[in-house]
Amino acid sequence: MESFSLILAIVVVTALAFDFTNGFHDTANAMATTISTGALRPKIAVAMSAALNLVGAFLSVEVANTISKGLVDENGIRPEVIFAALVGAILWNLLTWLVGLPSSSSHALMGGLIGATVASAGFGAVHGDVLVTKVLLPAVAAPVVAGVAAMVATRLSYTLGKKADGKAAQKGYRAGQIASAGLVSLAHGTNDAQKTMGIITLALVAGGAVAPDSDPPTWVILSAGLAIALGTYIGGWRIIRTMGKGLTDMQPQQGFAAQTSAATAILASSHLGFSLSTTHVVSGSVMGAGVGRKGGVVRWSTATRMLVAWVLTLPAAALVGALAEYVTGFGAWGTALVAVFLVSASFGIWKVSRREVVDHTNVNAVEEEPAGVVTTAIAAVTPPPAAGPAVTDGLTATIPAPAAATAEQPATANPAPAV
Description:
two-stranded antiparallel sheet, single chain
């Protein structure tokens, strides 16, 4: 290592902070269905996921190389550009976490990097072919493939399990769900932890600390793995609630099918060097599993909000990254101003989140969505039920039936004389 300037140190610390937010933002990808079905208790689930994220960080560097060597031109990129990119990614992660939306940390990082690079060196510094083939196309194809696979696997699970003993089958599916969730955690470490490795390596190259085309140093791999593992253990409970209960009501068979399909897609993409969004893959597989069960329901209103967040992630993070890069261009005071803004905004988002705390004690509690305008209007103009029996179609009438005569109260005021 030839040099390690103050700005480079700031970039590395900020990158690890992003890795931490990536960890708690994406914990839901591995453990939401496992927690929602009761296969594992919440704290045990996130501890298991954190450990496997750390292990997964050491299994491959292909995705890290895609970011550090392929997405943007290393020549002419200053460490301040990397810092600006991370600001955009962190703020988008925190905002979507606040509202409980499972957006892509990967695409937030890509968007921030693209925006800051364009602001610094122009559009020519972004390798469009790599962006399309290894980022955008997998973003579209992966959730569809994982969703179809999960739907088919769910239907097979229910078909093959018809003749199986109920309790034994449930235990088997829960065990399989735990194993598949562990596989997703391992795959998450091999994919998402590497993105931070790639961004730190790119900053080291930009700052002259390592030679161009270098693989991530060992200390980078270790620190990135530890940061994402710690974030995972903290647990992004808001997003876990949305993924586990907000999209569909999961049963063990569905959870097993969804997790297995997602893990397969993520591991395959890591091997090919695709910077895949694990959020997109797992969300697609959860929806596929919801459709795959007969009588299963997918809450499409929640899915639509997620889709909007997915579409906005790249441009929103790119815009913030570009603005941050513009301010850092004024020199050291500009960089300091961006750093102060990042810390202040992050603290403000955290303070807002304290108004309604979501943690491991209430993660499976989902409030029903309020009635829509049409439903409310119909209820307001519905006439009261006619007088009649006390119970009609299982609903108690609002007008009670006449009271039956009792011994203490004669049936009529002037009874007829007996004959």
